[in-house]
Write a structure and sequence with these properties.
Strand order of the largest sheet: 1-2-3-4
Order of helices and strands: HHEEEHHHEHH
Radius of gyration: 17 Å
CATH architecture: 3-Layer(aba) Sandwich
Shape: globular
Strand content: 5-15%
Oligomer: single chain
CATH topology: Endonuclease, Chain A
Mean pLDDT: 89
Number of strands: 4
Structural class: alpha+beta
């Protein structure tokens, strides 16, 4: 259990950004450097992709490990505080991500989701993945 007061926890939670996060900025800068142009936080699509390459119908999401449930089958049992809130919250996020993926696929979009650590540690591999997606839509 942590030692934060309700006010401290509230302040911490308010500071969490939903757009222009560090992982988004890293990926966007790398894409821009490669000459790949995009829209950010594209509201015309379900799920409001962090990056949308409209020319090729590619929607990219930059997912943080905690909020989007990376390795959830193992990690949900490690949550120590407020399990009644966090477990359903993360599971709703995972379900919503899957629904958004299906909606976008049905609209003819390619969906790419990157984990934050992959963006930070393997940016070049993420860029290669996007380039491969672009090349596969050209033909």
């Amino acid at each position: 259990m942590d030692n934060l007061t309700i006010e401290q926890r509230k302040k911490n939670m308010k500071a969490i950004k939903s757009k222009d996060t560090s992982i988004e900025l890293v990926l966007r800068k790398a894409l821009w450097k490669k000459g790949i142009r995009y829209r950010k936080n594209y509201t015309k699509l379900p799920g409001k992709p962090d990056i949308a390459i409209t020319k090729y119908k590619i929607a990219i999401f930059c997912d943080s490990e905690f909020w989007h449930g990376k390795d959830w089958g193992v990690k949900k049992y490690k949550i120590q505080s407020n399990k009644e809130y966090w477990i359903p919250k993360i599971e709703r996020n995972i379900k919503r991500d899957n629904e958004v993926n299906n909606l976008l696929h049905n609209l003819g979009w390619t969906v790419i989701r990157f984990w934050g650590k992959d963006i930070h540690k393997n940016t070049n591999n993420c860029i290669k993945c996007v380039i491969n997606a672009i090349n596969s839509t050209k033909y």
